[in-house]
């Protein structure tokens, strides 16, 4: 702000000096014309005519030198003045510059700045548009909404083209690793398998897999019925115990968590999930790692962190 004021003061000073030097130039030019109007004066004593002509030429030369000097002064002050960018033409808006009130309100100056910003934005937009047009992505060019949605729903080929033997071998390997877990294959329907996983002496988990992809988890108490009367597996009835229903919810969250964070290999999410389930083997023994109590609202610590699965109440989780 101070720089602007100083610059304005400097410009005003230059204008004042330029006006003074212009007046001086006008005076010296007038002297030249007056001298030319008077012409060569007649010789008074009629014996030195050549001498009067010499005097005239000498005076004329002096006046011209004065004109030259004053002209240089004017030119010097004109060159030292800084051109003001707001004097460009803005259509009808330029009439604002003629209003003396704009000196107080700065309306015209603000309008000019806005116009310049707008022009610059247009230039940048044109450059960006040309760059984007020259680097268009194929996926945004060709794929329509329906095709794109279909592609997004499709699973990676490694989940679909997995051989049954590979799935069996992987499940056998996984069943050996976590202690305190008992596996039982209940049913196989094509790529879909239903497993019964018993965690210590705590609860039973019904786990539905498509190849190695976990699709449904249901946690029930050890003494709860897992089959309908006709002998088919019950995949939909929730446990009658609040504790098991809470663990079912957390287990589904764990399935989503591990499936999204370890989606590169199909068996890794299942492996992490089984290790997470193993942390429930002492559900009714271990106290909460935060508050140190066993029960909270009549429930044991039913929540486990996905990275560090230690016993924790729902209300105590960080
Ligand atoms: Zn607690």
Question: What does this molecule look like?
Answer:
By secondary structure, the protein is α+β, with helices and mostly antiparallel strands. It is built from 10 helices and 4 strands. Strands 1-2-3-4 form a 4-stranded antiparallel sheet. A hairpin with a 2-residue loop joins strand 1 and strand 2. Helix 1 (about 1-40) packs antiparallel against helix 2 and helix 9 packs antiparallel against helix 10. The two termini are about 50 Å apart. Residues about 140-145 have low confidence and may be disordered. One of its GO terms (cellular component) is mediator complex. This is Mediator of RNA polymerase II transcription subunit 27.
What binds here, in terms of ligands, is: zinc ion
Give the strand order, joined by hyphens, for the main sheet. Answer: 1-2-3-4
Classify the oligomer: single chain
Q: Quick one: biggest sheet?
A: 4 strands, antiparallel
Number of helices: 10
Distance between the termini: 52 Å
Nearest-integer average pLDDT: 81
The percent of residues in helical segments reads: 40-55%
User: Beta-sheet strand percentage?
Assistant: 5-15%
Would you identify the regions where 5 or more consecutive residues have pLDDT less than 50? 140-144
Q: Structural class given helices, strands, pairing?
A: alpha+beta
Number of strands: 4
- What is the CA-based Rg, rounded? 48 Å
- Which geometry do the CA atoms define? rod-shaped
Organism: Ciona intestinalis
Protein name: Mediator of RNA polymerase II transcription subunit 27
Pfam family, one: Med27
Main location: nucleus
